[in-house]
Trimethyllysine dioxygenase, mitochondrial (Stomoxys calcitrans), 369 residues
Amino acid sequence: MMEIKHYESQEIIKVNYFWLRDHCRCLLCYNTETLQRKYNLLDIPRDIAPEKGGFKYLKDGKVLQVKWTDGHISDYDVDFIFSLQVEKFQSNKAKSTLKTPWNLPIVLQNERHIRFKLTDLIASDAVVKDYVSALIRYGIVFIDEVPASTAMTEMAIRRVFPVMKTFFGEMFTFTDAADHADTAYSKVYLGSHTDNTYFCDAAGVQALHCLSHVDGDGGDNFFVDGLHCALELKRRNPKAYDILTKVQVPAEYIEKGQHHTHSAPMIRVDPVTQEIIQMRLNVYDRAVFNTIPQSEMMEFYNSFCEFLEIVQSPESQWRFKLHPGTVVVFDNWRVYHGRYAYTGKRTMTGCYVQRTDYQSKARVLGIID
């Protein structure tokens, strides 16, 4: 281990020799055009260490130069080394205020921040950044004044994100016709859920647009912030929260030519920062539950039911009717959505966006790290 002192704060950290050698950014080790390492990790001796007296500070302590026992010389930016430590990473995540958990009163107070006109979105890159920032913060945004067609809905989404292709297609248009083995393809009540719980990598973002609803009524949509609900469960019952972050809940989708299955917790947390990174809930797609012993079942079901009480409470649910001309875009890893039963003929269109594309856009715009 090497002790490194910060030139301003005088803080001292200890870093592993091999890790330090692995993070050399000289032109022999790092391709500055592709931003990729250039060497085989096995090229570094396992017992790598600085030569005796082989390190010194340059440029008033801002640069650390190390002469290694394999003959390599590395110059390190001291701020760079300090910024890469796990404690710094955890601290930055803990202090992050990018996301605003919401219930009904909070989201209604902030609705003006999450509505965007299609013409403004097309005309201004600054509006695109505001749109993605709002989606990161609240998990839901609206694009207004979109002509009611699948083609125009696709254009509105592709202005910012590429569209994800699944067995539903890229853009999907649906009614109550049973085109797929899914409750969404019906007129019945559809409770709060996330899509694709049966995929190994569920869509990160979903978009929906009601193209028409004639000769009937009902069909109000509703949205629930799963992040708020999870934090509320953690406050009320930390043990129940812990159970839902650990128990693997199986999901399954079966129709002719398709059989998808995946198991994961209902609340997924980052193992390093403990930050909530994905909410996963779909009572319709739950498969046979065989991932924990029977002796633990009741404790899980009690936790599950307590969580559902929060999710289904009136204060958590934002209910409204989608009309032609408004596209709702929401974070499928955070926000639950559902629909009340309806009569008549209702036509919806929509699509998915991969999580990695969503986050890539946010990084390119400088919104997240």
Notes: The CA atoms of residues 52 and 221 lie 69 Å apart. The longest helix spans residues 297-311. The first strand starts at residue 2 and ends at 5.
